[in-house]
């Protein structure tokens, strides 16, 4: 594995998994009052575009990191919509 690919995978893992505590907390307490719906909609859209970009250029770190982030952000977004 190239050093640049490894760097991309590590960076992607760190930024992606930074959402796990938010997902777990939101899921556990079902409290989303302090989460901005607009911010998560914009962020979800940005991640979706990064994911699409990664697929188009066939870049594994971008695809993996943004694919997982897309799922995590989608979960928080759905919880925000459900619990307001």
TrEMBL record:
The cross-references to InterPro entries, in alphabetical order and at most eight, read:
PQ-loop_rpt, SemiSWEET
- Species: Candidatus Methanofastidiosum methylothiophilum
- Write down a Pfam family by its short name: PQ-loop
- Gene3D superfamilies for this protein: 1.20.1280.290
GO MF annotation, one: sugar transmembrane transporter activity
Q: Where in the cell is it found?
A: Membrane
What name does UniProt use for this protein?
A: PQ loop repeat protein
Keyword field: Membrane, Transmembrane, Transmembrane helix
Q: What lineage is this protein's organism placed in?
A: Archaea, Methanobacteriati, Methanobacteriota, Stenosarchaea group, Candidatus Methanofastidiosia
